[in-house]
Amino acid sequence: MRIYLIGFMGSGKSRLAKSVAAKTNLTYIDLDERIVAETGKSISDIFNTESENQFRLYEKKALHDTFKEHKAIVACGGGTPCFYDNIEQINTNGVSIYLKVPKGALFKRLAGSKKQRPLISGLTDTALMEFIDALLEERSSCYAKSKLTINALDLSATRLIDYLKENKVYLK
Ligand code: S3P
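^ thats the input. predicted complex w/ shikimate-3-phosphate below
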């Protein structure tokens, strides 16, 4: 059983994956954390001193490494399902869930955490809103390939676990 949480930056993937793992016997995996651990560099460093392309390769490798786990809940990066054949690989090897959050809420969350995120660091609030609009539009087709979609505004781990059960995804 492998569950993959996908969705835009700020949609709560890491928080929910961690919290579902604490309530079940699934192992928590965060792709960004794995990349940082393996490279010894922060995500921003990788973008700035290597390149986004190189980051996407590390991300693909970190994703493929999760296929060796038997029981895991994986917090993907916002772009993970949109590069290479990652979303097809995710769907072959596990169950993908798109955490859908309205633009306004994403903006509020991201406006306060620009620094850690290389794609938005340095953007003014107006530029951030435009960026979210454009990237969400661009990525909606890959997010739509997820097996399940849940409204993730104010979503709790308990509600997510119930939703998975309702959809016959048993976390055993
Ligand atoms: C990215 C999202 C980030 C991280 C990187 C690129 C993206 O992860 O992987 O900065 O392309 O949307 P979070 O969604 O966890 O912020």
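The chain has a mean pLDDT of 97.
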